[in-house]
Design goal:
Keywords: Cytoplasm, DNA-binding, Phosphoprotein, Transcription, Transcription regulation, Two-component regulatory system. Helix content is about 60%, strand content about 10%. The protein is an alpha/beta fold and about 500 residues long.
Protein backbone atom coordinates (compact mmCIF):
# COMPACT_ATOMS: atom_id res chain seq x y z
CA UNK A 1 0.00 0.00 0.00
CA UNK A 2 1.46 3.35 -1.08
CA UNK A 3 1.29 5.95 1.71
CA UNK A 4 0.05 9.47 0.80
CA UNK A 5 0.18 12.91 2.45
CA UNK A 6 -2.29 15.57 1.24
CA UNK A 7 -1.43 19.25 1.72
CA UNK A 8 -3.72 22.19 0.89
CA UNK A 9 -4.66 25.36 2.71
CA UNK A 10 -8.29 25.08 1.62
CA UNK A 11 -10.18 22.67 3.97
CA UNK A 12 -12.89 21.91 1.39
CA UNK A 13 -10.33 20.82 -1.22
CA UNK A 14 -8.47 18.77 1.37
CA UNK A 15 -11.65 16.98 2.43
CA UNK A 16 -12.82 16.60 -1.16
CA UNK A 17 -9.57 14.93 -2.20
CA UNK A 18 -9.99 12.32 0.53
CA UNK A 19 -13.36 11.27 -0.87
CA UNK A 20 -12.92 11.97 -4.59
CA UNK A 21 -11.74 8.43 -5.42
CA UNK A 22 -11.43 5.01 -3.80
CA UNK A 23 -7.80 5.30 -2.73
CA UNK A 24 -7.67 1.79 -1.29
CA UNK A 25 -8.82 0.17 -4.51
CA UNK A 26 -5.96 1.90 -6.33
CA UNK A 27 -3.40 0.71 -3.80
CA UNK A 28 -3.04 3.96 -1.87
CA UNK A 29 -3.60 4.95 1.75
CA UNK A 30 -3.92 8.53 3.03
CA UNK A 31 -1.78 8.59 6.17
CA UNK A 32 -1.63 12.35 6.85
CA UNK A 33 -3.05 15.72 5.87
CA UNK A 34 -1.71 19.22 6.45
CA UNK A 35 -2.91 22.79 5.73
CA UNK A 36 0.46 24.32 4.90
CA UNK A 37 4.07 23.44 4.19
CA UNK A 38 5.33 24.11 7.72
CA UNK A 39 2.76 21.75 9.23
CA UNK A 40 3.55 19.13 6.57
CA UNK A 41 7.30 19.28 7.33
CA UNK A 42 6.59 18.78 11.03
CA UNK A 43 4.36 15.78 10.32
CA UNK A 44 7.02 14.32 8.00
CA UNK A 45 9.35 13.99 11.01
CA UNK A 46 7.27 11.15 12.45
CA UNK A 47 5.00 9.93 9.64
CA UNK A 48 6.50 8.12 6.66
CA UNK A 49 4.87 8.47 3.26
CA UNK A 50 5.72 7.70 -0.37
CA UNK A 51 3.69 10.30 -2.26
CA UNK A 52 3.06 13.98 -1.55
CA UNK A 53 0.06 15.71 -3.16
CA UNK A 54 0.32 19.42 -2.44
CA UNK A 55 -1.06 22.77 -3.51
CA UNK A 56 1.60 25.09 -4.96
CA UNK A 57 0.58 28.43 -3.39
CA UNK A 58 0.13 28.28 0.38
CA UNK A 59 0.89 30.68 3.25
CA UNK A 60 4.11 30.33 5.30
CA UNK A 61 5.71 27.79 2.94
CA UNK A 62 4.74 27.02 -0.66
CA UNK A 63 4.31 23.55 -2.08
CA UNK A 64 7.56 23.90 -4.03
CA UNK A 65 9.44 24.96 -0.90
CA UNK A 66 7.97 21.95 0.87
CA UNK A 67 9.16 19.59 -1.88
CA UNK A 68 12.63 21.17 -1.86
CA UNK A 69 12.85 20.83 1.94
CA UNK A 70 11.84 17.18 1.80
CA UNK A 71 14.42 16.56 -0.93
CA UNK A 72 17.09 18.07 1.31
CA UNK A 73 16.10 15.61 4.02
CA UNK A 74 16.74 12.86 1.46
CA UNK A 75 13.14 11.76 1.64
CA UNK A 76 12.55 9.26 -1.16
CA UNK A 77 9.11 10.54 -2.02
CA UNK A 78 7.31 11.42 -5.21
CA UNK A 79 5.12 14.48 -5.54
CA UNK A 80 2.08 15.74 -7.44
CA UNK A 81 1.20 19.45 -7.35
CA UNK A 82 -2.20 21.08 -7.53
CA UNK A 83 -2.25 24.26 -9.59
CA UNK A 84 -4.55 27.09 -10.64
CA UNK A 85 -4.56 28.48 -14.19
CA UNK A 86 -2.54 31.51 -13.12
CA UNK A 87 0.28 29.48 -11.56
CA UNK A 88 2.06 27.90 -14.54
CA UNK A 89 5.33 29.67 -13.71
CA UNK A 90 5.36 27.79 -10.41
CA UNK A 91 4.80 24.52 -12.27
CA UNK A 92 7.91 25.13 -14.37
CA UNK A 93 9.93 25.45 -11.18
CA UNK A 94 8.31 22.25 -9.90
CA UNK A 95 9.50 20.29 -12.91
CA UNK A 96 13.10 21.00 -11.88
CA UNK A 97 12.30 19.46 -8.49
CA UNK A 98 11.12 16.23 -10.09
CA UNK A 99 7.36 16.45 -9.64
CA UNK A 100 5.38 13.65 -11.26
CA UNK A 101 2.54 15.79 -12.61
CA UNK A 102 0.50 18.89 -11.97
CA UNK A 103 -3.28 18.84 -11.79
CA UNK A 104 -5.46 21.85 -12.43
CA UNK A 105 -8.20 22.75 -9.95
CA UNK A 106 -10.93 21.63 -9.80
CA UNK A 107 -9.36 18.17 -9.83
CA UNK A 108 -10.45 15.89 -12.67
CA UNK A 109 -11.11 12.41 -11.26
CA UNK A 110 -9.92 10.52 -14.35
CA UNK A 111 -6.72 12.56 -14.60
CA UNK A 112 -5.98 11.95 -10.91
CA UNK A 113 -6.52 8.19 -11.28
CA UNK A 114 -4.33 8.09 -14.39
CA UNK A 115 -1.53 10.00 -12.61
CA UNK A 116 -1.74 7.74 -9.57
CA UNK A 117 -1.50 4.66 -11.79
CA UNK A 118 1.71 5.96 -13.37
CA UNK A 119 3.18 6.88 -9.99
CA UNK A 120 2.34 3.45 -8.58
CA UNK A 121 4.06 1.79 -11.53
CA UNK A 122 7.19 3.90 -10.95
CA UNK A 123 7.27 3.17 -7.23
CA UNK A 124 6.83 -0.55 -7.80
CA UNK A 125 9.50 -0.51 -10.50
CA UNK A 126 11.94 1.27 -8.17
CA UNK A 127 11.39 -1.34 -5.47
CA UNK A 128 11.80 -4.19 -7.93
CA UNK A 129 14.96 -2.63 -9.33
CA UNK A 130 16.43 -2.38 -5.83
CA UNK A 131 15.71 -6.03 -5.12
CA UNK A 132 16.16 -7.34 -8.67
CA UNK A 133 19.54 -8.96 -8.07
CA UNK A 134 18.28 -11.13 -5.22
CA UNK A 135 14.93 -11.78 -6.89
CA UNK A 136 16.49 -13.06 -10.12
CA UNK A 137 19.03 -15.14 -8.22
CA UNK A 138 16.37 -16.62 -5.93
CA UNK A 139 14.03 -17.38 -8.81
CA UNK A 140 16.76 -19.29 -10.65
CA UNK A 141 17.77 -21.27 -7.57
CA UNK A 142 14.19 -22.18 -6.74
CA UNK A 143 13.32 -23.25 -10.30
CA UNK A 144 16.44 -25.40 -10.45
CA UNK A 145 15.72 -26.92 -7.06
CA UNK A 146 12.18 -27.99 -7.99
CA UNK A 147 13.25 -29.35 -11.38
CA UNK A 148 11.96 -26.53 -13.59
CA UNK A 149 15.41 -25.53 -14.85
CA UNK A 150 18.14 -27.75 -16.26
CA UNK A 151 21.56 -27.88 -14.61
CA UNK A 152 23.35 -26.41 -17.64
CA UNK A 153 21.08 -23.37 -17.75
CA UNK A 154 21.35 -23.04 -13.99
CA UNK A 155 25.17 -22.93 -14.14
CA UNK A 156 24.94 -20.23 -16.80
CA UNK A 157 22.61 -18.17 -14.62
CA UNK A 158 24.80 -18.60 -11.53
CA UNK A 159 27.81 -17.30 -13.46
CA UNK A 160 26.33 -13.83 -12.84
CA UNK A 161 26.63 -14.42 -9.08
CA UNK A 162 30.25 -15.38 -8.36
CA UNK A 163 29.61 -15.17 -4.63
CA UNK A 164 27.35 -18.22 -4.92
CA UNK A 165 29.49 -21.32 -4.43
CA UNK A 166 27.99 -24.79 -4.77
CA UNK A 167 29.75 -27.63 -3.03
CA UNK A 168 28.35 -31.03 -2.17
CA UNK A 169 27.44 -32.33 0.31
CA UNK A 170 25.06 -29.54 1.20
CA UNK A 171 22.12 -29.09 3.51
CA UNK A 172 18.89 -27.22 2.90
CA UNK A 173 16.40 -25.77 5.36
CA UNK A 174 12.95 -24.24 5.15
CA UNK A 175 11.36 -21.55 7.32
CA UNK A 176 7.60 -21.30 6.87
CA UNK A 177 5.72 -18.53 8.63
CA UNK A 178 2.55 -16.47 8.72
CA UNK A 179 3.50 -13.01 7.52
CA UNK A 180 0.03 -11.53 7.02
CA UNK A 181 0.55 -7.76 6.94
CA UNK A 182 4.35 -7.87 6.81
CA UNK A 183 5.62 -6.28 3.62
CA UNK A 184 7.91 -7.69 0.97
CA UNK A 185 10.44 -5.11 2.07
CA UNK A 186 10.49 -6.63 5.57
CA UNK A 187 10.86 -10.10 4.09
CA UNK A 188 13.89 -9.07 2.02
CA UNK A 189 15.35 -7.23 5.02
CA UNK A 190 15.16 -10.49 6.99
CA UNK A 191 16.76 -12.30 4.06
CA UNK A 192 19.70 -9.89 4.04
CA UNK A 193 20.12 -10.18 7.81
CA UNK A 194 20.29 -13.97 7.69
CA UNK A 195 22.78 -13.94 4.82
CA UNK A 196 24.99 -11.45 6.64
CA UNK A 197 24.95 -13.11 10.06
CA UNK A 198 24.98 -16.81 9.11
CA UNK A 199 26.66 -19.03 6.55
CA UNK A 200 23.37 -19.87 4.83
CA UNK A 201 22.46 -18.67 1.37
CA UNK A 202 18.90 -17.41 1.91
CA UNK A 203 16.31 -17.68 -0.87
CA UNK A 204 12.81 -16.19 -0.86
CA UNK A 205 10.47 -18.70 -2.50
CA UNK A 206 7.44 -17.72 -4.62
CA UNK A 207 5.16 -18.59 -1.69
CA UNK A 208 7.02 -16.25 0.67
CA UNK A 209 8.93 -18.92 2.60
CA UNK A 210 12.66 -18.73 3.28
CA UNK A 211 14.81 -21.51 1.86
CA UNK A 212 18.34 -21.93 3.21
CA UNK A 213 21.33 -23.65 1.62
CA UNK A 214 24.50 -24.56 3.50
CA UNK A 215 27.55 -25.82 1.64
CA UNK A 216 30.33 -27.67 3.41
CA UNK A 217 30.06 -28.40 7.14
CA UNK A 218 31.07 -32.01 6.64
CA UNK A 219 32.07 -32.36 10.28
CA UNK A 220 29.09 -32.73 12.57
CA UNK A 221 30.66 -30.48 15.22
CA UNK A 222 31.01 -27.62 12.70
CA UNK A 223 27.42 -28.08 11.60
CA UNK A 224 26.24 -28.09 15.21
CA UNK A 225 27.87 -24.70 15.81
CA UNK A 226 26.42 -23.22 12.62
CA UNK A 227 22.94 -24.55 13.42
CA UNK A 228 23.04 -23.03 16.91
CA UNK A 229 24.17 -19.68 15.53
CA UNK A 230 21.49 -19.79 12.82
CA UNK A 231 18.69 -20.63 15.25
CA UNK A 232 19.84 -17.81 17.52
CA UNK A 233 19.65 -15.29 14.67
CA UNK A 234 16.19 -16.55 13.64
CA UNK A 235 14.93 -16.37 17.21
CA UNK A 236 16.05 -12.75 17.53
CA UNK A 237 14.73 -11.76 14.07
CA UNK A 238 11.55 -9.62 13.92
CA UNK A 239 9.35 -12.40 12.58
CA UNK A 240 6.69 -11.87 15.21
CA UNK A 241 4.42 -14.67 13.94
CA UNK A 242 4.38 -18.44 14.53
CA UNK A 243 6.91 -20.19 12.33
CA UNK A 244 8.31 -23.65 11.70
CA UNK A 245 11.88 -24.45 10.70
CA UNK A 246 13.15 -27.78 9.38
CA UNK A 247 16.46 -28.77 7.80
CA UNK A 248 17.78 -31.75 5.91
CA UNK A 249 20.59 -34.17 6.47
CA UNK A 250 23.64 -33.78 4.16
CA UNK A 251 22.70 -34.19 0.48
CA UNK A 252 25.36 -35.63 -1.82
CA UNK A 253 23.55 -35.73 -5.17
CA UNK A 254 21.74 -33.10 -7.21
CA UNK A 255 18.98 -35.56 -8.09
CA UNK A 256 17.89 -35.75 -4.45
CA UNK A 257 17.38 -32.02 -3.93
CA UNK A 258 13.80 -31.77 -5.18
CA UNK A 259 12.57 -34.74 -3.15
CA UNK A 260 14.21 -33.41 0.00
CA UNK A 261 12.67 -29.97 -0.57
CA UNK A 262 9.26 -31.52 -1.16
CA UNK A 263 9.69 -33.59 2.00
CA UNK A 264 10.43 -30.47 4.03
CA UNK A 265 7.38 -28.66 2.64
CA UNK A 266 5.15 -31.48 3.85
CA UNK A 267 6.82 -31.53 7.26
CA UNK A 268 6.43 -27.79 7.68
CA UNK A 269 2.76 -27.77 6.77
CA UNK A 270 1.99 -30.66 9.11
CA UNK A 271 3.90 -29.03 11.97
CA UNK A 272 2.01 -25.79 11.45
CA UNK A 273 -1.29 -27.68 11.44
CA UNK A 274 -0.71 -29.92 14.45
CA UNK A 275 0.00 -29.09 18.10
CA UNK A 276 3.65 -29.26 19.08
CA UNK A 277 3.19 -32.51 20.97
CA UNK A 278 2.21 -34.20 17.68
CA UNK A 279 5.09 -32.84 15.57
CA UNK A 280 6.64 -36.30 15.48
CA UNK A 281 3.81 -37.24 13.09
CA UNK A 282 5.31 -34.95 10.47
CA UNK A 283 8.62 -36.78 10.65
CA UNK A 284 6.90 -40.16 10.44
CA UNK A 285 4.30 -39.45 7.75
CA UNK A 286 6.39 -38.22 4.86
CA UNK A 287 6.53 -39.84 1.48
CA UNK A 288 10.11 -41.00 0.99
CA UNK A 289 10.23 -41.85 -2.68
CA UNK A 290 13.81 -43.03 -2.46
CA UNK A 291 12.81 -45.83 -0.08
CA UNK A 292 13.39 -49.34 -1.38
CA UNK A 293 9.94 -50.26 -0.12
CA UNK A 294 8.18 -48.11 -2.71
CA UNK A 295 7.61 -49.73 -6.10
CA UNK A 296 9.20 -47.53 -8.77
CA UNK A 297 6.01 -47.52 -10.84
CA UNK A 298 3.86 -46.20 -8.00
CA UNK A 299 4.57 -42.51 -8.53
CA UNK A 300 3.97 -42.82 -12.28
CA UNK A 301 0.63 -44.48 -11.58
CA UNK A 302 -0.37 -41.83 -9.05
CA UNK A 303 0.61 -39.04 -11.41
CA UNK A 304 -0.70 -40.28 -14.75
CA UNK A 305 -3.62 -42.54 -13.95
CA UNK A 306 -5.24 -42.00 -10.61
CA UNK A 307 -5.26 -38.22 -10.62
CA UNK A 308 -6.34 -38.17 -14.23
CA UNK A 309 -9.32 -40.33 -13.26
CA UNK A 310 -10.07 -37.95 -10.39
CA UNK A 311 -10.02 -34.99 -12.76
CA UNK A 312 -12.53 -36.81 -14.96
CA UNK A 313 -14.60 -37.77 -11.88
CA UNK A 314 -14.12 -41.50 -12.51
CA UNK A 315 -14.18 -42.19 -8.79
CA UNK A 316 -14.89 -45.93 -8.89
CA UNK A 317 -11.92 -46.40 -11.20
CA UNK A 318 -9.74 -44.52 -8.70
CA UNK A 319 -10.91 -46.75 -5.85
CA UNK A 320 -10.23 -49.86 -7.88
CA UNK A 321 -6.73 -48.78 -8.99
CA UNK A 322 -5.68 -47.73 -5.50
CA UNK A 323 -6.91 -50.94 -3.95
CA UNK A 324 -4.99 -52.93 -6.56
CA UNK A 325 -1.86 -50.85 -5.98
CA UNK A 326 -1.95 -51.30 -2.21
CA UNK A 327 -2.62 -54.99 -2.51
CA UNK A 328 0.20 -55.57 -5.00
CA UNK A 329 2.63 -53.55 -2.87
CA UNK A 330 1.97 -55.67 0.24
CA UNK A 331 1.60 -52.48 2.26
CA UNK A 332 0.47 -54.25 5.42
CA UNK A 333 4.02 -55.50 5.88
CA UNK A 334 5.08 -51.89 6.40
CA UNK A 335 2.37 -49.74 8.03
CA UNK A 336 4.55 -46.63 7.88
CA UNK A 337 4.67 -46.91 4.11
CA UNK A 338 0.89 -47.48 4.02
CA UNK A 339 0.29 -44.31 6.02
CA UNK A 340 2.72 -42.37 3.86
CA UNK A 341 0.87 -43.38 0.68
CA UNK A 342 -2.41 -42.24 2.25
CA UNK A 343 -0.89 -38.94 3.33
CA UNK A 344 0.49 -38.40 -0.16
CA UNK A 345 -2.92 -39.11 -1.70
CA UNK A 346 -4.74 -36.88 0.78
CA UNK A 347 -2.39 -33.94 0.35
CA UNK A 348 -2.41 -34.07 -3.42
CA UNK A 349 -6.18 -34.46 -3.51
CA UNK A 350 -6.51 -31.41 -1.29
CA UNK A 351 -3.98 -29.25 -3.12
CA UNK A 352 -4.57 -30.23 -6.74
CA UNK A 353 -8.36 -30.28 -6.51
CA UNK A 354 -8.65 -27.43 -3.99
CA UNK A 355 -10.87 -29.45 -1.63
CA UNK A 356 -11.79 -27.09 1.21
CA UNK A 357 -12.02 -28.56 4.70
CA UNK A 358 -12.73 -27.10 8.13
CA UNK A 359 -9.54 -27.13 10.17
CA UNK A 360 -10.84 -29.64 12.73
CA UNK A 361 -11.87 -32.05 9.97
CA UNK A 362 -8.46 -31.64 8.33
CA UNK A 363 -6.65 -32.54 11.57
CA UNK A 364 -9.07 -35.41 12.22
CA UNK A 365 -8.26 -37.00 8.86
CA UNK A 366 -4.52 -36.66 9.46
CA UNK A 367 -4.85 -38.27 12.89
CA UNK A 368 -6.93 -41.12 11.47
CA UNK A 369 -4.28 -41.74 8.83
CA UNK A 370 -1.76 -42.11 11.66
CA UNK A 371 -3.71 -45.08 13.04
CA UNK A 372 -4.29 -46.92 9.77
CA UNK A 373 -2.73 -50.41 9.87
CA UNK A 374 -4.45 -52.50 7.20
CA UNK A 375 -5.37 -52.22 3.53
CA UNK A 376 -9.05 -52.39 4.51
CA UNK A 377 -8.67 -49.41 6.84
CA UNK A 378 -6.70 -47.58 4.15
CA UNK A 379 -9.50 -48.08 1.63
CA UNK A 380 -12.02 -46.63 4.08
CA UNK A 381 -9.83 -43.52 4.34
CA UNK A 382 -9.54 -43.35 0.55
CA UNK A 383 -13.33 -43.58 0.28
CA UNK A 384 -13.66 -40.75 2.76
CA UNK A 385 -11.21 -38.59 0.81
CA UNK A 386 -13.00 -39.21 -2.47
CA UNK A 387 -16.36 -38.50 -0.80
CA UNK A 388 -15.00 -35.07 0.09
CA UNK A 389 -14.27 -34.43 -3.56
CA UNK A 390 -17.70 -35.69 -4.64
CA UNK A 391 -19.40 -33.48 -2.05
CA UNK A 392 -17.42 -30.52 -3.33
CA UNK A 393 -18.71 -31.10 -6.86
CA UNK A 394 -22.32 -31.50 -5.69
CA UNK A 395 -22.50 -28.02 -4.16
CA UNK A 396 -24.27 -26.44 -7.11
CA UNK A 397 -26.87 -23.69 -7.17
CA UNK A 398 -29.93 -24.97 -5.32
CA UNK A 399 -32.30 -22.05 -6.00
CA UNK A 400 -34.40 -21.62 -9.09
CA UNK A 401 -32.93 -18.67 -10.95
CA UNK A 402 -33.71 -17.47 -14.43
CA UNK A 403 -31.38 -18.85 -17.13
CA UNK A 404 -29.41 -15.60 -17.45
CA UNK A 405 -28.80 -15.32 -13.68
CA UNK A 406 -27.82 -19.01 -13.49
CA UNK A 407 -25.30 -18.39 -16.26
CA UNK A 408 -23.97 -15.24 -14.59
CA UNK A 409 -23.66 -16.95 -11.20
CA UNK A 410 -21.80 -19.86 -12.75
CA UNK A 411 -19.45 -17.41 -14.47
CA UNK A 412 -18.87 -15.50 -11.22
CA UNK A 413 -18.04 -18.68 -9.31
CA UNK A 414 -15.60 -19.79 -11.99
CA UNK A 415 -13.92 -16.39 -12.47
CA UNK A 416 -14.37 -14.63 -9.12
CA UNK A 417 -10.62 -13.88 -8.90
CA UNK A 418 -10.73 -11.88 -12.14
CA UNK A 419 -11.79 -8.27 -12.70
CA UNK A 420 -15.59 -8.57 -12.78
CA UNK A 421 -18.23 -5.86 -13.05
CA UNK A 422 -21.79 -5.55 -14.30
CA UNK A 423 -20.37 -3.81 -17.35
CA UNK A 424 -18.03 -6.69 -18.26
CA UNK A 425 -20.73 -9.28 -17.53
CA UNK A 426 -23.25 -7.36 -19.60
CA UNK A 427 -20.80 -7.27 -22.49
CA UNK A 428 -20.04 -11.00 -22.14
CA UNK A 429 -23.69 -12.07 -22.05
CA UNK A 430 -25.14 -9.38 -24.33
CA UNK A 431 -27.42 -7.78 -21.75
CA UNK A 432 -27.77 -4.19 -20.56
CA UNK A 433 -25.64 -3.77 -17.38
CA UNK A 434 -28.29 -1.68 -15.61
CA UNK A 435 -31.01 -4.24 -16.33
CA UNK A 436 -28.65 -7.07 -15.29
CA UNK A 437 -27.98 -5.32 -11.98
CA UNK A 438 -31.68 -4.91 -11.30
CA UNK A 439 -32.40 -8.54 -12.24
CA UNK A 440 -29.53 -9.77 -10.08
CA UNK A 441 -30.76 -7.76 -7.08
CA UNK A 442 -34.31 -9.03 -7.50
CA UNK A 443 -33.46 -12.74 -7.88
CA UNK A 444 -30.39 -13.13 -5.68
CA UNK A 445 -31.51 -10.72 -2.99
CA UNK A 446 -28.42 -8.50 -2.87
CA UNK A 447 -26.39 -6.31 -5.17
CA UNK A 448 -23.82 -7.79 -7.54
CA UNK A 449 -20.96 -6.02 -5.73
CA UNK A 450 -22.01 -7.33 -2.32
CA UNK A 451 -22.42 -10.87 -3.69
CA UNK A 452 -18.96 -10.81 -5.32
CA UNK A 453 -17.29 -9.42 -2.22
CA UNK A 454 -18.99 -12.00 0.01
CA UNK A 455 -17.95 -14.81 -2.34
CA UNK A 456 -14.35 -13.61 -2.35
CA UNK A 457 -14.29 -13.27 1.44
CA UNK A 458 -15.79 -16.78 1.83
CA UNK A 459 -13.12 -18.24 -0.46
CA UNK A 460 -10.46 -16.29 1.44
CA UNK A 461 -11.71 -17.77 4.72
CA UNK A 462 -11.34 -21.27 3.33
CA UNK A 463 -7.79 -20.52 2.24
CA UNK A 464 -7.00 -18.96 5.62
CA UNK A 465 -8.06 -22.20 7.29
CA UNK A 466 -6.50 -24.61 4.84
CA UNK A 467 -3.23 -23.00 3.76
CA UNK A 468 -0.37 -21.10 5.25
CA UNK A 469 -0.19 -18.48 2.52
CA UNK A 470 0.14 -14.95 3.78
CA UNK A 471 -3.12 -13.02 3.97
CA UNK A 472 -1.98 -10.65 1.22
CA UNK A 473 -1.30 -13.58 -1.10
CA UNK A 474 -4.72 -15.03 -0.32
CA UNK A 475 -6.29 -11.66 -1.12
CA UNK A 476 -4.68 -11.71 -4.56
CA UNK A 477 -5.84 -15.29 -5.16
CA UNK A 478 -9.46 -14.35 -4.55
CA UNK A 479 -9.42 -11.16 -6.63
CA UNK A 480 -8.11 -8.33 -4.46
CA UNK A 481 -5.05 -6.86 -6.13
CA UNK A 482 -4.08 -4.76 -3.13
CA UNK A 483 -3.46 -6.42 0.24
CA UNK A 484 -4.55 -3.50 2.43
CA UNK A 485 -7.82 -3.12 0.50
CA UNK A 486 -8.41 -6.85 1.08
CA UNK A 487 -7.80 -6.41 4.83
CA UNK A 488 -10.34 -3.57 4.96
CA UNK A 489 -12.98 -5.54 3.04
CA UNK A 490 -12.37 -8.61 5.19
CA UNK A 491 -12.76 -6.60 8.39
CA UNK A 492 -15.91 -4.98 7.00
CA UNK A 493 -17.54 -8.41 6.58
CA UNK A 494 -16.00 -10.33 9.49
CA UNK A 495 -15.33 -7.54 12.04
CA UNK A 496 -11.73 -8.70 12.45
CA UNK A 497 -8.54 -8.90 10.38
CA UNK A 498 -7.68 -12.04 8.37
CA UNK A 499 -5.00 -12.99 10.90
CA UNK A 500 -7.35 -12.57 13.86
CA UNK A 501 -10.03 -14.62 12.09
CA UNK A 502 -7.51 -17.36 11.23
CA UNK A 503 -6.32 -17.64 14.83
CA UNK A 504 -9.84 -17.69 16.28
CA UNK A 505 -11.18 -20.34 13.91
CA UNK A 506 -8.11 -22.56 13.62
CA UNK A 507 -7.88 -23.06 17.34
CA UNK A 508 -11.54 -22.95 18.30
Amino acid sequence: MIRVMLVDDEPLILEGLKHLIDWGQLGYEIVATARNGVEALEIAKYVSFDLLITDIKMPEKTGLELIAALNEREKTIRSIVLSGFQEFHFVKQGLTLGIENYLLKPINEKELISTLSHVKEKINHAFLKEESTLVLRDHSIWRWLVGKMGHTEFKQRMAFYPEVQWKFPLRIGLLKMEWDQHTEEELYRLQRTLEQETSAMTVVTPSGDLLFIWCGFERESDWGQERSRFQSVVTEAPIGQPFVFVHSEPISEIQCLYEVYREMEMKCELKLLLPERDHHMADQLTFKRESELIPPQMNITLEQDIFEHLANRHYQKVRKDLEHMLSESHCERNPIFLKSVLMEFFYRLKSQFIVQLPFDQYVQIVQQIVHVETTSEAMKMIDRCIDLLEDDHLQENEKNYSPIIQTVLQHIHQHFSQDLSLKTLGHSFHINPIYLGQLFQREVGCSFTKYLNQLRIDRAKKLLLNSYDRAGQIGKKVGYGDATYFYKQFKKYEAMTPTEWRKVHKHS
